[in-house]
Task: inverse folding
């Protein structure tokens, strides 16, 4: 993969080609596990896929060796501020430790990309991560003063639209534009907890999901449930814009689609633990179920969507 060492100019041009046509950036996601559509809905375009068998994905011929994942990454509480000294590792979903030698992606330096957030023109840092086509992976993100985060794609990384792009060495790669990833500073995590009247346990896990409908759009009016959830310290939350709200029982998501659970305790010495997150839409129909592997002190976030497990996003 010698071409990954090419100039920043080459990668800037590639970045623009990857995201040209994107209207605005308003959502993010990370998820893992298998999807289960357990009920059926009335005819609603946002959820019509639940009444249908899974759609087929484009078949590229020849199958490319690589896929380029282009994703904006910026501070959650202060968009679109870049995250200083951000480290990103792409790891196989089966690799919970992910030493450098096992990483499955090449992360390029970010380039500035003009877009809009909430209708306001901004410039965001756009990262390009080159990974093997079809890999089932997650991203581990770390930076000084930030919660260590894991962004799980929720399925194999394959083409969703059949598009390819030339790499700097002339070979072709599939492209996949990701929804923004927004790391959370530890100070902001403490402030958010204090604002809803609780004390954050820095050794507890956090789950932050975004609800997404059949059309890939953020879905308001959805609710999440967690299993197991027998600890009284677990705090369900939703957001009002970027402001967290304590919601017990959980309240529906707003237009940002954000909801999750904080202060999830893990037994001392336990390095990871599996939990199940279920999503219901505004009429109470289950549209997705995800099994997530969480870790002490980590923020695991992602999308809850009907296509979970079929492809990554």
Result:
């Amino acid at each position: 993969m010698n071409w990954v060492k090419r100039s920043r100019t080459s990668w800037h041009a590639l970045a623009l080609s990857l995201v040209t046509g994107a209207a605005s950036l308003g959502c993010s996601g990370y998820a893992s596990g298998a999807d289960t559509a357990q009920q059926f809905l009335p005819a609603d375009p946002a959820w019509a896929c639940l009444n249908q068998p899974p759609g087929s994905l484009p078949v590229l011929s020849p199958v490319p060796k690589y896929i380029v994942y282009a994703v904006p990454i910026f501070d959650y509480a202060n968009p679109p501020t870049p995250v200083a000294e951000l480290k990103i590792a792409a790891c196989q979903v089966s690799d919970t430790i992910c030493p450098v030698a096992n990483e499955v992606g090449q992360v390029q330096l970010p380039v500035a990309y003009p877009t809009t957030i909430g209708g306001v023109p901004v410039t965001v840092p756009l990262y390009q991560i080159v990974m093997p086509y079809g890999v089932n992976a997650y991203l581990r993100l770390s930076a000084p003063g930030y919660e260590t985060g894991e962004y799980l794609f929720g399925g194999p990384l394959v083409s969703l639209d059949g598009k390819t792009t030339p790499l700097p060495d002339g070979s072709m790669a599939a492209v996949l534009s990701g929804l923004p990833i927004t790391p959370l500073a530890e100070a902001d995590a403490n402030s958010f907890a204090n604002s809803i009247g609780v004390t954050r346990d820095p050794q507890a896990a956090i789950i932050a999901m975004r609800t997404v409908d059949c059309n890939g759009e953020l879905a308001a009016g959805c609710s999440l449930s967690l299993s197991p959830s027998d600890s009284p310290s677990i705090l369900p939350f939703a957001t009002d814009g970027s402001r967290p709200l304590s919601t017990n029982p959980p309240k529906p998501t707003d237009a940002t689609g954000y909801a999750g659970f904080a202060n999830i305790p893990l037994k001392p010495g336990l390095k990871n633990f599996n939990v199940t997150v279920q999503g219901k839409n505004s009429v109470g129909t289950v549209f997705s179920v995800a099994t997530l592997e969480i870790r002490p002190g980590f923020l695991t976030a992602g999308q809850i969507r009907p296509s979970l497990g079929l492809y990554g996003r």
